[in-house]
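Justification of computing resources. Each target in the renewal requires a structure prediction run like the one illustrated here; the chain below, 365 residues long, is used simply to show the kind of job we budget for.
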Amino acid sequence: MHTKIKIFLVEDEIIIRQGIKKNINWQQEGFDFVGEASDGELAYPLIQNTKPDILITDIKMPFMDGLELSRLVKKELPDIKILVLSGYNEFEYAQEAINIGIADYLLKPITGAKLLEAVKKMAKIIEEDRQQKQFLLAYQKERAESGRLAKQKLFGRLISGEYAVSALLEEGRKIGMELAANQYNLVLFQVFTAEGAENYSDERNQISARLEEIAEKTKQIIMIDRGALEGFVFLLKGSGEDSDGNLKKLLPQFLKNIEQAMREYPDAEYFGGAGVTVDRLSELKVCFAKASHAYAYRYLWERNQIVTGQTQSEQTMTDEKLSLGSLNVKQLEQNAIERFIATGLQKEIPDFVEEYFHSLGEQSI
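Resulting structure tokens:
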């Protein structure tokens, strides 16, 4: 057993309780004896705290009997295995035990060997259930990762401009991405930790799930996770009509939703860049180039904003950014250049250099 299975005992007769506790070497048998109580009322809060895997309980006890306790425990811990001990060989008790979901029902008096045999049988079932859950989690994780890589691959093809639209549409359908639409736009988005370095921290995973939730509220937005360094990309699909499905309305609302969601994570920073709306899937290469251009500003401008084609010309540098007026070369290197060296990608060099010198030119006017 990789993790010891936890045992909790409830028995009002102290001699029987002490006998079960001490006559079986639980530790040596691979179990962890986590607690005991003389009745269900005392046992219940202890069980909530210790969360045992197996509950051994007498059926007839004062204050709260074993069946009432079992009903409560099963609601709290549905996976727990319950072994009932009883001196009553009556059908209604056994029937009630079955209805509650009790795993086994043993009649007193009972030997330590027989009790241990019953407990080991339950432990085997628990171990098998754990393995099955581990296999399922591993399978789900593998499928999720496979799906993420498939989306990344397709996105690379979408922005390359080298593939036939029909082939892209078919590939999208195979992995659950419906690409057909009248309009398209892209939003590139990156999340930064409080330290300023991108990583797969728990917080980033939480933010990723939150962003996915926002995107999934409409069938018009597809989120693709490109990894910690490249961030996320959102593919927006518009109806092309004068309705809520038009990207003129959908894009600003979506950006507003993202910004509102990011306020839930005060220790994280973000930056986004939106492209220009195009009417053809084959034009996503152009859209991506525009979005990447806007996205490159994350090395030059303050964070916690999403830059669009309209806002690029309206933004101003913050005091911590580039300023030719003071001609502080050290500040330039420590701010924009160091930030890019630390987190930038080789393929982003042209956009960064262009925007860097463009910003210098603006400051010199």
